[in-house]
Amino acid sequence: MRSADWWSIEILDSEHAVTSATAWQDAYAQVLAESLITNGASSWKWFEYSWGVVLEVAFADERLWLDWTSLPGTQAALDAVPDPVAGLLVHRGHGGTSGSYVPCTPGVPPIADRVALPEPI
Q1: Tell me, what CATH number does 56's domain have?
Q2: Which domain of life is it from (predicted)?
């Protein structure tokens, strides 16, 4: 079984916009949820932050994601974000404050001669 491809749509608040990202979510959440259900999304979740909202969506493969984003309803919702120039981020992976992937660096392997010996009395 294949793992899902996660995608994020981040809508940022803008000081010069008429509406907020939360107001945009209130207006379009129902329409986007219906289109996600009917177009094969395996999961989605909304997150609210002080700077805006994030919609994380999972599809079984990239083709389903591309088909969903090309729907007229999805395009209309994305065109209606408060700041479509600087307030819309669409990318692969989890969004918001999930942080970037940082691989663990290997530690120094334990070796017997590196163990502290007891001090002589």
Answers
A1: 3.30.70
A2: Bacteria
